[in-house]
Amino acid sequence: MNYQMTYHGTSPACCTTRSLCTSSKEVSILPFTKNGIAYTEANLTASVKAENNRCKDIPKLERLIEKSWICYTEKNPTLVNKLKFRLHTAEDDEENGVTHLHLGLTNCKEHLGTNCLLFPHDLRQLQTLGVLNNCDRRSYFAQWLGVGALILTPEKKYIFLRRSCECCEMRPLLDRASGCPDPEKVRLEPGECDLAKATSEDLVHEIFASVLRGITHEVGIPGDAIEDIEFLGLTFCKIKGERPTAEFHVKTPWPTQKIIWNYMNRRHKLCYNSCNIIFTSEEEVRNTPLNHSMFFKGLAPCGKGAILLLREQIRQLKEVERERARGPKV
């Protein structure tokens, strides 16, 4: 099903409308490919402002977030309330092929207390309050911006990970390598007032750098063995309050056996996030009908979204080829 939607925060007038596609009850996608050409670092700009932070005008909700954090830290004392970027707006300039990401700041505590609410009716209630109070159903959610990567090997296989019981989310599903950009990498600290010191170039570079870190930390492939980084678009995980993730497609020259050997050594930083590495053929990922694929059914929502974005890119490329075959219009 396709429908028109503007991805915006509290200022809808600043955004253009782009077709957001939903193919399951779990995930929606927002493609950023034009005529099959994915965006690169040069096609993105970004800014971070306090006005893009989560709305905090419901005292009861803020108290519940504090209580939920206490519960989480009692169960897992290693949890740290790290600063994260919040995606407020994706503003698209299709004519010039540029997308501007309007960012705010959030943290792990807000994420666990809003996007990770256990019951669907709680998520819906929070979305309804956002619409009623701010004309934005995401305004009370942390909307922590993550990144994910589909990694293609020289043998034309994509890499997926089986989430372990130690991973905080999506266990025991299959997923692509993932991570998140770090505000502290662009000199932003908790309680930071001067957000303007984080330039657009710094922010975009950190988003792309976080893709390499995520792959290194979760799979064990070093950043210098990653090539052809392309930004496919955004996914929105519906079962997590439409939490956004920027999805990328990358290639590695490392052969499959070397990747397996490195992964099995379990020396990478976040090796505990997964318990197995799985290689799936390019043909299955790109072409197998979704309703016939047991592999697809076993994927985490954002993993499904990443594949849907890739298939949208392929659809656009085929459409361009058909137009060329028809020849110029008379």
UniProtKB/TrEMBL annotation:
It comes from the Eukaryota. InterPro entries: NUDT22/NUDT9-like (IPR055295). The keyword NAD does not apply. Keywords: Hydrolase, Magnesium, Metal-binding. Its cofactor is Mg(2+). GO terms for molecular function: GDP-mannose hydrolase activity; metal ion binding. Transmembrane segments: none annotated. This is Nudix hydrolase domain-containing protein.
